[in-house]
């Protein structure tokens, strides 16, 4: 394994109905392309991209999941260790929006409660076919205390922003957590001896 | 010659216009200019003269040439006559040739017509022959022959047939055609019926016989479909039979469940065999292979739906799930194997077909087909059911192991850790055996969840609450062995603490085991992966590997969390098991007076009052740990213990008072202790005892001011660990040092 040359490592999992454009969003972000006619995702796909934010290297592990029901038990197993979830729907497909509460239930059940969730309405390039009004989605996201963003994987609209904003938010939370942890009392026992010991390897 | 001619022409043209014209000459007024022009004109004149001479010189040769030309005149007249004669002959030949070719063309047309006539006659004859032949063949139930006749008829040029119908014998041809068409329909029906019959009768020879007839009748697709259906139904019914055997037999439930995998295996092997045996036929008579494969998949539904029924269990005993789970993974592995077989087969066909046309697209299409085919989807669904069940199995089994947690004094280990790891390992191995990367990863994720949160919590809580004393004492009372009794009577009063100590040892031991297990699990998975990667995940791409690596790295993180927990546990062990014992041994120092004179000092010399006993006690304690704990844990624990000793010693020393010789005595005692501790631990303990050593140095001083020989600029290599206030405090422990002197010190 190579030296881990990054300051942060975050796991991001994309979820949402099949066909809303999760795979396209990931490919657009990680490879800079809009894949022509690739098949539906099987199980989960895994991609890595390292970005730099304010001089800090952030390694993003992106898990692209299959939307179909039969893969649900595979994809669910990734929720718990996720730092962030990108819940995606298709603005030209009312159905994909209506399924959001179902996805939120999944999140509630399987993800850890510190997870950052962002709602993404994809395919805004198809404005003339829009079925879900922006305001409606924004209201929904706000009610569920999620961030909201509209994207187009095809036109590369807001895709970069989606992942970078998320990375920023995760860094912010990580820093906050570190502060909080430093505030809490040290481990039980003989105070200083622990810190002495903790530098000894116990392999 | 040409050259000179040209130049002469040029001269003639430019001759009339000299380089200097008259106007310019008359315009000249200066003598100088006139002279220059004159010179120029003279030069031109000379040039012209030379040219004239040259031309005159050529006159002779030109004259000779003129004479030669005049002599050629009559010859040329002769040539002219010959040429016109030749031309006449050529024209004649040409018209002759044209005549011939026209006739040849006419002959050609006649010949073509003749051929057509012959062909038509042949066709008509054929038609008649076919008509008769078909009927005879049909009467004789020689369907192959009949089909050959129909095939012949079908391959006749339909336009010729149409033409024939317009001829004189149209009525006869018409009759033949009607008969033939009737025969064709009849044959089609018969063949279809016969094939169906053969299929129903499971008569392979007959099936193949009629299967071969279909393409002759132009019914490739239909034949292929029927053949596929036949194979499916055959396999399906075989599967059904096997299933019936599997379910209907007198075997117990568990056995029956096991049989499903065998059934599927049989089925798949059967299919593979069928593909092997029938492919030549199919390839010879048919083109499209995919339909057949899709056809195969239909029958999986039969097996699978019956599998499914046995799956969504109510919350049942995890052990009961065991065989089903094993079987599903096996099924998936088999299916995967089967798909790989097909992939290989198709690729091989591609290569045979046309090595150049195997494009990336072809391969992608095959991948797509295989990934999204019914079988794949069914297996994905099956795995989808498998994962939550396996997780349930793992969680319930681990819960059980935790609930049944026992430990015996002799072993000093907890059964729980071993059991839990056995289960986790088993589940992951099983998931791995499914050959599905996603399935494996999902189970690693679940295992990780379980270990990191649930299991860790269990251990953490056990640590928090300490071992339940009742359980502990029950076990100890139960151990009525003589050894235990002797031990307890010998070390009266220590019964309980020893008990705790052992239990704590057990805790430490199982934590160690745990950490080892984590590493072990990981290395185990890695080994398994390495061995299976090459053949299992072909065509999966590097993405799969990255997935597994990533999931495994989570497991590594978990194991490091357990290291932290272990650290915590050891600290706990130190405070709850070691400290209560060591503390009184050290505070007994207080009862040994260090305010002593020569006589007592010598007495101590002969009869050690404290440190030797402490060392013996420590030795005993350590010996017990050494056998109970792994070297790493033991080492960490001794380190914790030495820290504890130095802290306790320091506290105790501050409560004593020392004479000059008492200080010397303490110095001696401290040296013995440090020397002993250095032998039992690999840690450098001098650092831990630095403060105490410095205190001993102070207690050994002759005079208060002697401290200045070691302080500040005189400290040399010594780094003081004591603050000036502490130095004064230690000095004050010496009863013979005056407090004014100490106060007066400038540190
Ligand atoms: N017009 C448009 N089509 C998109 C966009 N993103 C995805 N698609 C199309 O939507 C379909 C499904 O995309 P995919 O990424 O496979 O969806 P997934 O099932 O959520 O992974 C594909 O046909 C894509 O070409 C987008 O931003 N605009
Ligand atoms: Mg996808």
TrEMBL record, chain A:
Where it mainly occurs, coarsely classed, is membrane
Q: Where in the cell is it found?
A: Autolysosome membrane; Cytoplasmic vesicle, Autophagosome membrane; Golgi apparatus, cis-Golgi network membrane; Golgi apparatus, trans-Golgi network membrane
- EC no. given is 3.6.5.2
Q: Which UniProt keywords apply?
A: Cytoplasm, Cytoplasmic vesicle, Golgi apparatus, GTP-binding, Hydrolase, Lipoprotein, Lysosome, Magnesium, Membrane, Metal-binding, Methylation, Nucleotide-binding, Prenylation
Membrane topology is: Lipid-anchor
- Keyword Metal-binding included in the entry's annotation: yes
- Provide the reaction this enzyme catalyses: GTP + H2O = GDP + phosphate + H(+)
Q: Which cofactor does it need?
A: Mg(2+)
InterPro entries per record: P-loop_NTPase, Rab, Rab30, Small_GTP-bd, Small_GTPase
Q: Name one GO molecular function term.
A: metal ion binding
> What GO biological process terms are annotated to this protein in UniProt?
Rab protein signal transduction
SUPFAM superfamilies under this entry? Answer: P-loop containing nucleoside triphosphate hydrolases
Q: Name one GO cellular component term.
A: cytoplasmic vesicle
| Protein family according to the UniProt entry | Belongs to the small GTPase superfamily. Rab family.
Function description: The small GTPases Rab are key regulators of intracellular membrane trafficking, from the formation of transport vesicles to their fusion with membranes. Rabs cycle between an inactive GDP-bound form and an active GTP-bound form that is able to recruit to membranes different sets of downstream effectors directly responsible for vesicle formation, movement, tethering and fusion. RAB30 is required for maintaining the structural integrity of the Golgi apparatus, possibly by mediating interactions with cytoplasmic scaffolding proteins.
* NCBIfam families in alphabetical order: small_GTP (TIGR00231)
Listed name of the protein: Ras-related protein Rab-30
Q: List the lineage, top down.
A: Eukaryota, Metazoa, Chordata, Craniata, Vertebrata
Automatic annotation (TrEMBL), chain B:
Per its UniProt record, what SMART domains does this chain match? Answer: Cog4
Matching Gene3D superfamilies? 1.20.58.1970, ESAT-6-like
Q: Which residues form the COG4 transport protein middle alpha-helical bundle domain?
A: 180-464
Q: Which residues form a coiled coil?
A: 31-58
| Entry annotated with the keyword Isomerase | no
List, alphabetically, the Pfam families matched. Answer: COG4_C, COG4_m, COG4_N
Keywords linked to the UniProt accession: Coiled coil, Golgi apparatus, Membrane, Protein transport, Transport
Q: Name one GO biological process term.
A: retrograde vesicle-mediated transport, Golgi to endoplasmic reticulum
Where is this gene product found? Answer: Golgi apparatus membrane
Show the PANTHER family listed in the entry: CONSERVED OLIGOMERIC GOLGI COMPLEX SUBUNIT 4
Protein family membership: Belongs to the COG4 family.
Name by which UniProt lists this protein: Conserved oligomeric Golgi complex subunit 4
From the broadest rank down, the organism's phylogenetic lineage runs:
Eukaryota, Metazoa, Chordata, Craniata, Vertebrata
């Amino acid at each position: 394994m190579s030296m881990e040359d990054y300051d942060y490592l975050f796991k991001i999992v994309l979820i949402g109905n099949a066909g809303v454009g999760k795979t396209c969003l990931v490919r657009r972000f990680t490879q800079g392309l809009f894949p022509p006619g690739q098949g539906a995702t099987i199980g989960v796909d895994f991609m890595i991209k390292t970005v730099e934010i304010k001089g800090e290297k952030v390694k993003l592990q992106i898990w692209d999941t299959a939307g179909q029901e039969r893969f649900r038990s595979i994809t669910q197993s990734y929720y718990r260790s996720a730092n962030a979830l990108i819940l995606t729907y298709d603005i030209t497909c009312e159905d994909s929006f209506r399924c959001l509460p179902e996805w939120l239930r999944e999140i509630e059940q399987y993800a850890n409660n510190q997870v950052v969730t962002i709602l993404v309405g994809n395919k805004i390039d198809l404005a003339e076919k829009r079925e879900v009004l922006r305001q409606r989605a924004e209201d929904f996201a706000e009610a569920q205390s999620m961030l909201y963003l509209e994207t187009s994987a095809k036109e590369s609209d807001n895709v970069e922003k989606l992942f970078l904003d998320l990375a920023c938010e995760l860094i912010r939370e990580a820093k906050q957590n570190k502060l909080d942890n430093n505030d809490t009392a040290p481990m039980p026992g003989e105070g200083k001896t622990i810190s002495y010991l903790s530098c000894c390897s116990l392999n | 010659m040409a050259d000179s001619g040209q130049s002469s022409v040029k001269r003639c043209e430019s001759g009339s216009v000299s380089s200097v014209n008259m106007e310019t000459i008359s315009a000249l007024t200066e003598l100088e200019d006139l002279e220059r022009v004159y010179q120029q004109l003279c030069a031109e004149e000379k040039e012209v003269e030379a040219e004239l001479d040259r031309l005159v010189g050529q006159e002779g040769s030109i004259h000779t040439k003129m004479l030669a030309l005049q002599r050629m005149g009559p010859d040329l007249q002769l040539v002219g006559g010959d040429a016109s004669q030749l031309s006449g002959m050529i024209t004649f030949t040409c018209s002759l040739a044209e005549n011939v070719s026209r006739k040849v063309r006419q002959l050609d047309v006649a010949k073509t017509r003749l051929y057509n006539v012959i062909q038509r006659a042949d066709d008509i004859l054929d038609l008649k022959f076919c008509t008769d032949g078909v009927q005879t063949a049909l009467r004789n139930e020689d369907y192959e022959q009949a089909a050959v006749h129909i095939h012949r008829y079908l391959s006749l040029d339909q336009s010729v047939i149409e033409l024939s119908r317009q001829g004189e014998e149209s009525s006869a041809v018409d009759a033949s055609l009607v008969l033939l068409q009737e025969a064709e329909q009849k044959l089609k029906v018969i063949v279809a019926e016969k094939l169906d019959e053969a299929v129903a009768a499971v008569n392979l020879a007959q099936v193949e016989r009629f299967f071969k007839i279909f393409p002759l009748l132009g019914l490739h697709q239909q034949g292929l479909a029927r053949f596929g259906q036949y194979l499916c139904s055959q396999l399906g019914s075989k599967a059904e039979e096997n299933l019936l055997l599997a379910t209907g037999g007198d075997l117990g439930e568990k056995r029956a469940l096991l049989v499903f995998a065998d059934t599927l295996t049989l089925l798949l092997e059967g299919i593979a065999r069928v593909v092997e045996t029938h492919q030549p036929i199919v390839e010879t008579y048919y083109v499209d292979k995919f339909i057949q494969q899709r056809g195969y998949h239909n029958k999986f539904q039969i097996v699978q739906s019956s599998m499914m029924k046995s799956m969504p269990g109510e919350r049942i005993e995890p052990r009961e799930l065991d065989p089903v789970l094993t079987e599903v993974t096996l099924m998936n592995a088999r299916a995967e194997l089967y798909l790989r077989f097909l992939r290989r087969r198709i690729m091989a066909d591609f290569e045979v077909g046309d090595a150049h046309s195997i494009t990336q697209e072809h391969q992608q299409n095959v991948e797509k087909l295989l990934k999204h085919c019914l079988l794949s989807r069914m297996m994905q669904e099956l795995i989808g059911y498998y994962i939550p069940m396996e997780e349930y199995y793992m969680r319930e089994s681990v819960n059980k192991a935790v609930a049944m947690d026992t430990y015996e004094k002799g072993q000093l280990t907890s059964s729980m850790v071993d059991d839990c790891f056995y289960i986790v390992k088993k589940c992951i191995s099983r998931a791995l055996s499914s050959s599905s990367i996603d399935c494996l990863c999902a189970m690693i994720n679940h295992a990780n969840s379980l270990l990191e949160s649930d299991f860790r919590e269990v251990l953490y809580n056990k640590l928090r609450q300490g071992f339940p004393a009742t359980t502990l004492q029950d076990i100890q009372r139960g151990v009525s062995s003589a050894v235990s009794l002797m031990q307890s009577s010998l070390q009266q009063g220590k019964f309980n603490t020893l008990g705790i100590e052992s239990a704590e040892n057990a805790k430490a031991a199982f934590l160690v085991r745990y950490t080892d297990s984590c590493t072990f699990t990981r290395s185990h998975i890695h080994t398994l992966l390495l061995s299976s990667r090459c053949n299992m995940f072909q065509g999966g791409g590097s993405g799969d590997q990255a997935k597994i690596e990533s999931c495994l790295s989570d497991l590594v993180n978990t194991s490091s969390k357990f290291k932290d927990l272990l650290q915590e546990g050891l600290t706990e062990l130190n405070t709850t098991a070691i400290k209560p014992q060591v503390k009184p041994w050290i505070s007994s120092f207080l009862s040994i007076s260090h305010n002593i004179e020569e006589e007592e000092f010598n007495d101590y010399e002969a009869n050690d009052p404290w440190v030797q006993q402490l060392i013996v006690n420590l030795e005993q304690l350590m010996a017990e740990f050494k056998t109970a704990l792994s070297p790493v844990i033991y080492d960490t624990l001794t380190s914790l213990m030495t820290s504890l000793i130095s802290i306790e010693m320091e506290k105790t020393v501050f409560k004593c008072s020392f004479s000059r010789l008492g200080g010397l005595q303490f110095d001696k005692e401290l040296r013995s202790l440090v020397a002993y501790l250095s032998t039992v631990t690999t840690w450098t303990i001098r650092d831990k005892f630095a403060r105490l050593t410095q205190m001993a140095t102070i207690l050994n001083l002759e005079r208060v001011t002697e401290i200045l020989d070691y302080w500040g600029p005189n400290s040399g290599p010594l780094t003081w660990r004591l603050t000036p206030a502490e130095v004064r405090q230690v000095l004050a422990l010496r009863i013979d040092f005056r407090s004014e002197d100490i106060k007066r010190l400038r540190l």
